[in-house]
């Protein structure tokens, strides 16, 4: 997730709240919030 992409319109807390409302499974939520960025940016 890149919360800065909507800065300053959306705060990180609002982005995280809305991400929690998506109803994603634990596995998909982990990828959405962290794993995909790690893979793309080779972190």
Descriptive overview:
With 43 residues, the protein is mainly alpha-helical. It contains 2 helices and no strands. It has helices at 12-20, 26-40. The longest helix is centred in the C-terminal third of the chain and has 15 residues, at 26-40. It is flat and about 30 Å long. The model has no long low-confidence stretch (mean pLDDT 83).
Topology, please?
Blueprint: H1 12-20, H2 26-40
Which keywords apply here?
single chain; 43 residues; mainly alpha; 2 helices; 56% helix; flat
pLDDT averaged over residues: 83
Backbone structural class: mainly alpha
The biggest beta sheet reads: none
**What fraction, in percent, of the residue positions are helical?**
55-70%
Alpha-carbon Rg, integer: 11 Å
Summed up, the helix count is 2
Uncertain segments: none
- Give the termini distance in whole angstroms: 14 Å
- Seen as an oligomer or otherwise, the chain set is single chain
The fraction of residues in strands falls at under 5%
The total strand number stands at 0
* Helix and strand sequence: HH
Shape: flat
């Amino acid at each position: 997730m890149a919360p800065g992409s909507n800065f300053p319109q959306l705060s990180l807390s609002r982005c995280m709240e809305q991400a929690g409302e998506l109803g994603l499974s634990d596995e998909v939520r982990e990828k959405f919030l962290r794993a995909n960025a790690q893979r793309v940016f080779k972190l």
